[in-house]
Amino acid sequence: MDRTAWIVVALCVIGLVVWEFYLAKQMAPRPASVTSAPGRPSLSATPAIVAPSPLPTPVAEASPGSAPTPSFTEKIETLRNSDVELRLTNRGGGIKEAVLLKQIAEKGQRVVLNSDRSAPIGAILEQPSTATLPEFTASAQSDSVQFERTTDEQIAIRKKFFFEKSPENKDNYVIEMDIDLENRGDKPYQSSGYFVALGSAAPIHPRDYPSYTRLVWCIDGRPKAIDVGWFGSSSGFLGVGQHPGRPYFQQSIAGAEWVAVSNQFFTTLMVPLTAKATGVWGQRFDIDRGPDQKLLGIEGALGMPALELQPGQTYSARFEIYAGPKLYHRLAQLRHNEAEVMDFGIFKVVCQFLLNFMNLLHSWFHDYGLAILALTTIIKLTLWPIQNKANRSMRQMAALSPKVQELRDKYKDDPTRMNQEMMKLYKQYGINPVGGCLPMMIQIPIFFGLFKMLGQAVELRNSQFLWVKDLSQPDTVAHLPYLGWPINIIPLCMAATQIWLMAMTPKTGDPTQRRVMMFTPLIFLFICYNFAAALALYYTAQNLFSILQFYQNKRQPTPTLEKVAPAGKRKR
Predict the structure, then answer these.
(1) Model confidence, pTM
(2) How far apart are CA 46 and CA 489, in angstroms?
(3) 104, 312, 406, 528: which has the highest count of C-beta atoms within 10 A?
(4) Other C-beta atoms lying within 10 Å of the C-beta of residue 352
């Protein structure tokens, strides 16, 4: 290869290596976060991203918070439907754990939302970073659990948890929490605001991407979020953007419809029904799962506005809690833009269509692997006529390449004139030099839409296909001895089919471009090697269809080069 080609290839390789190091750094164990000195910032104060701690103290590893050991016996009450079991605690009066009865994690265990060392979901907090969880008196009914306590200021706090009634026979993960504050004293009670704990979220699998572990809030139908990477220190770029580690995130907001903690496939989302949230709070914590499995989790809380109670007066607040998998069809049925927690971004419309269509195909085939193959087939058949025109354009370009090379040799010292003459040549023969790129331009939003959709499609979890045990994870069948590198079959097949496809593609463009394109399969293999098996399966199947189409096009007569008559001389 010439020097330019080597430079391009070297830059690509360096970029990929840097990307892998970045991912490794994100997945690596982080130092334990720190909490601030005691204090209670007001929600009505000027918005602040983070309040630095003058006297930081370390937090124990694997612990979201450092609540003091309770001086009372913890009691657990259970509330259950066919989809989720809530374990409610008198310690803070909230949901200690939400056990998803139909969702399986590693080693056959059920998925559990919230850590038992985090503040319970629904706990009322003065300041989350210095949370105290007092004792409540619990009473269980057939369809609800209630908590009650009276503060030193003679404020009676009553909470009631129950499942919302739903016409659906499945996917019922919505809980309602009603709160009443009654002033039983003889003095007015004022509060500048309070927080309600969301619990915590953490990756289910070691290979889950950290960027999906986030604190999310929605304002006017538009989601905003920070992920666990926000809390880490950064050296910036050439000193720009450098900052130390951040102990926690806290921000006043204009009014949020909901706030959530979320991982790649599950979320705990809380909607205040009587008033919008006026603040968000979040903190990162470490999870130690062995020498090679140290993950990052996040806990959060939403802030509520100030309140004032006269003697004998009662304040009531209602909250809707969704604690379950990120099922788009279920979240879309809710009334407060809860589906925005999926974070589909600019490819939202494409993601929604592909996800709904994939689930429709699954209802016919009862197998998500077959549904993905059927989805690929339909997409390729839809684009087949466009790809045929593109293949014909590439074959015409290949036939014209000798004349193009003559122009390159003739005007090699005058690039501007060379480009002008080449455009004239294309115009003379009626060839669109970018015609072969059109199908790729159409497939770009489809590819990225599938990437975003398949990355969060909880339906693919534990879905098997051939040797793949879980389509939402890489299809690792073994590890290389000594090195420990995973052996993923489908990405290797993807790279092999891409090399096969490139070998069949007519050779167009200058030699440097062709040499650089030779490394495309390697680059895609490097990027997609640890992606979900479902995405690699789609891309491999797409390559096989493209190969089939090239074979079909090759059987057609070779296109002949004929000059096109000028526009003024064409017959009408």
Answers:
(1) 0.77
(2) 54
(3) 528
(4) 18
Residue 395 lies in a domain: yes
Residues 339 and 419 occupy one common structural domain: no
177 token code pair: 């929490």
Same domain, 440 and 511: yes
Alpha-carbon distances of 16 from 21, 264, 525, 531, 568, rounded to whole Å = 9, 23, 11, 15, 52
Give how far the C-alpha of residue 433 lies from the chain's centroid of Cα atoms, to the nearest Å: 37
Q: Is residue 109 part of a domain?
A: yes
- Measured between alpha carbons, how far is 209 from 135 in angstroms, rounded to an integer? 37
Residue whose C-alpha is closest to residue 286's, from 120, 118, 95, 119: 118
**Reading across the β-sheet that carries 249-256, which strands appear in turn?**
124-125, 194-201, 294-304, 277-288, 249-256
- β-partners of residue 521 are none
Rounded to the nearest 10 degrees, the angle between the axes of helix 533-554 and helix 489-504 is 20
Q: Phi and psi at residue 458, in whole multiples of 5°?
A: -65, -20
Question: Angle formed by the axes of helices 533-554 and 438-456, to 10°?
Answer: 160
Question: Looking at the predicted structure, is the pLDDT value of residue 64 above 60?
Answer: no
Structural domain including 82 reads 31-37+74-234+243-343
pLDDT on residue 562 = 60
Q: Which residues of 279-296 are buried (b: 16+ CB within 10 A; e: fewer)?
A: bbbbbbbbbeeeeeebbb
Residue 425 lies in a domain: yes
Q: Which two tokens stand for residue 223?
A: 């989601």
pLDDT digits (tens, 9 = 90+) for 387-439: 666 666 666 666 666 766 777 777 767 677 777 777 776 676 666 665 556 66
Give the total number of structural domains in the chain: 2
377 and 338: one domain? no
Residue 279 and residue 376 in one domain: no
| DSSP-derived secondary structure for 140-183 | E-SSEEEEEEE-TT-EEEEEEEEEPP-S-SS---EEEEEEEEEE
- Other CB atoms within 10 A of residue 548 CB: 11
Distance CA 332, CA 230 (A): 28
Instruction: Give yes or no for a contact between 115 and 315, defined as CB atoms under 8 angstroms apart.
Output: no
> Does residue 276 lie in a domain region?
yes
